[in-house]
Amino acid sequence: MSAPTTLGQRRAVASAPRRASDALAGLGPMVRLVLRRNRVRLAVWLVALVAMLAYIASYYQELFPTQEALDDFAAVSNTPGIKALTGLSPAADTLGGAVWTKGWMTIALALAIGVVFLTTRNGRADEEAGRTELLRSRMLGLHAHTVSSWLVLAALCLLVGAGVALVSAVEGLDPDGTGIAGSLVLGASVTGVGLFGLGVAAAAGQVASTARGANALGSVVIVGCYVLRMIGDLGSGALTWASPIGWGQRMEPFAGNRWWPFVLLVALTAALLAGALVVESRRDHGAGLVAARPGRGWAPRRLASPLGLGLRLQRGPIIGWTGAVVLAALLFGSVVEAMTDLVDDVGGEAGSFLRGAGVPALLAMLASMIALVTAIFAIQSAVSLRTDEASGIIEPQLAGGISRIRWAVQRLLIPVVGSAVLLVLGGALLGAVYGSTVDDPSQAGAMAGATLAYWPAVMVLVGLAVALFGWAPRIAVPVTWGVMVAMWFTTMLGEVFGLPEWLLDALPLAAVPYLPVEELSWTPLVLLTLVGGALTWAGLDRFSRRDIQPA
Amino acid sequence: MPTTSSMALQIEGLHKSFGPVHALRGLDLVVPTGQVTGFLGPNGAGKTTAIRVLLGLLKADAGTVTVLDGDPWTDAVRLHRRIAYVPGDVTLWPNLTGGEAIDILCRISGPLDPRRKQAMLERFELDPTKKARTYSKGNRQKVALVAALASDAELLLLDEPTSGLDPLMEAAFTESIREVKAQGRSVLLSSHIFAEVEKLADRVTIIREGATVESGTIAELRHLTRTQVTAVLDRGVDGLAGLPGVHDLTVVDRHVTFAVDESALPAALARVAELGPRSLVANPPSLEELFLRHYGDELAALAGDGGAR
């Protein structure tokens, strides 16, 4: 029997590290558990990302059979819009470079974000729900649960990278005489950005004490890195180096073929993972670095209404998305002026890719990005109708003296009014900051109008979420997000997939007049509003008649 | 490695704070080897926090904690081979079946005896082929119970293990714990159900606001309280109220109730016999009364000013 320790000794024992040999006990069963729980998700990510590259590669091979065609394409690709959205390959006049410009950013970013959500799902979410506690009451090492999901997700990153490299080599994307050097760098750059996502998510999962917090923190870091490199690519390129996504870009497959940024990415990932392990070994189970604080012991009267309660419960996302829109508008507004020369130089043909030329085209693109961020906020808020139903917290509210319709309508005021506020705020700030650099105060109003024009499109997305909530509650949340992601993919890659022009133009966000490049036309706005209203009505009507269905 | 000491589990002066909240303030608790210790306390008294410290999930701020002769924080993994745990609120993987969850939990701790698992599944009438998302609270609880009871753990840490179970399943649980005890294994049973603890426990520890307020065998604790006597007496209550050790005597018609200290019980009953009893009921103090005695001031405050303390 160990000698009883005194109070002082107990402290010393407690702060000593636990047996290192035990830390990974039970890793094998945990890896099997992670694979079992995520087999469909892992397969979908792997196949979708690799297939996307394969599709782009074979399509471009057909589209650009000669060097002249590739040269022409490189010329029209050299626009601020392309540079901002996807980055431009230094070897844009090769087949590999063209494919990189089209697909790399989408694939790498999708992998990083996917890895963030999968890491949280298998880490902090399990701990928050109490499943990890049950596992850790068994012979499971302190880090086994965490490390098992890291191993599986690192393997996913490697497999996606390997698949990308293989596809690239088979499709012959490498310029003649370079072997498959570029294909290998291409695969490694995708793997590297994915691993960076894993490092970010692992750290976020230790800092935040809730799954939602961990996902939000991880996504914000990834998106922040994307915006950093966007501004860097538009300017001198210095900020691109400040972003790990920029490191992946600067591996420059088919051009510079650099390997050392990959080492940087792996080193950064290793440092983030090591930091996460240190935090995990020191903290209590269930705790984050941010401790929970006691709140007040009573509720103000306004929380008794669905709207008041909804606002309170969504306070974090509302503040977060408002901050994101404000920050993006300020950043975007301040770079437009600096790019004016650049934009003027290009002009001409380049305009077609940006759906217009010069400053208006750039402003229109930035407005559409603010609309995209707003749409994500609105969807997140709208699907909370279903998540509240699934978790059962809807029941005590409906058991009180409130009708279903009143509950739902009040809750929908948040995405409906909130998105209008965010759009006007983002557009006005963008215009005001840009206007102040060119002494044109009217820009604030003009840009606020340009972004507000997206409101009907956002309402269609909200309406879709409500319709699914009413008619297909069990699949409403994934399908709503799936539609959003599919829209993003078709907007980025639509013409590659050979989708008809009318369909692309009919997508809610694309159907909006592209202000200030295009003329304001009311027909699509009225139509979108009617569609959004009809979908919402259909969903609410069904919800008022159907059973309440917890998950 | 068998347990060599007489205590399966021993906590002395345990302190644990979460930021400004001082959850445990000098908790003492023992489970002698081969015995069942009942762990009573109202919600928020710190029972679950104490069990999480025993599992090495939380780090003690101060105090001594010994589980099966080891330190639960540094030796967590080795100790867990010999420990089984049932939480009061079981969460499972929604897209896995109950049977899968049981196998995963058991496999981490080494090989599982399939016959024992089958026996437990039958005893608790659990369908292991259903997805966990379709389980009710009681069924999720059964998953954790089956996983724990199918093991040969030396020490069972049970945190309100029967919450959500129906009375039949509670009986199955009681039977299981009696078997565990008969095999010489030890149990810490945190519970709200006095009857359950009275049936199973050898010892009881009552905690309040993170500190132990009463601890001992049930017999020892009964010494501390009074027996409640109810009688119908033909010849009045002369001389009864004056006896030493008799308290709270009330008479309604010929119905007499009073409380009596254990030491004064023979004298009081002798006097009652002389008064021509038509009926006589003497209740030993229940665990519930013991428990309420320690929270009596809270009850009084609630009764006194409508709960607005």
Termini separation of chain B: 52 Å
Major β-sheet profile of chain B: 6 strands, mixed
- How many domains would you count in the coordinates of chain A? 2
Give the number of domains of chain B: 2
Number of helices of chain A: 26
Helix content of chain A: over 70%
| Number of discrete helical segments of chain B | 11
Strand content of chain B: 25-35%
How does the overall form of chain A come out from the CA principal axes? globular
What are the segments of chain B in which pLDDT stays under 50 over at least 5 consecutive residues? 305-309
**End-to-end distance of chain A:** 49 Å
Main location (chain B): membrane
Family (chain B): Belongs to the ABC transporter superfamily.
Organism (chain B): Cellulomonas persica
Protein name (chain B): ABC transporter ATP-binding protein
Describe this entry's structure for a reader:
Chain B: Pfam families: ABC_tran, DrrA1-3_C. Chain B: This is ABC transporter ATP-binding protein. Chain B: It comes from Cellulomonas persica. Chain B: It is found in: Cell membrane. Chain A is an all-alpha fold. Chain A folds into 2 domains: 260 residues, no CATH class; 248 residues, no CATH class. In chain A, helix 18 crosses helix 21 and helix 18 runs antiparallel to helix 23. Chain A is globular. Chain A starts with 6 loop residues before the first helix and ends in a 6-residue tail after the last helix. Chain B has 309 residues and is α/β, with parallel strands linked by helices. Helices cover 34% and strands 29% of the residues of chain B. Chain B has a 6-stranded mixed β-sheet with strand order 5-6-7-3-8-9, sandwiched between helices. A 4-stranded antiparallel β-sheet of chain B has the order 11-12-10-13, with helices on one face. Chain B starts with 6 loop residues before the first strand and ends with a helix. At the A-B interface, helix 1, helix 2 and helix 7 of A face strand 1, strand 4, helix 2, strand 5 and helix 3 of B.
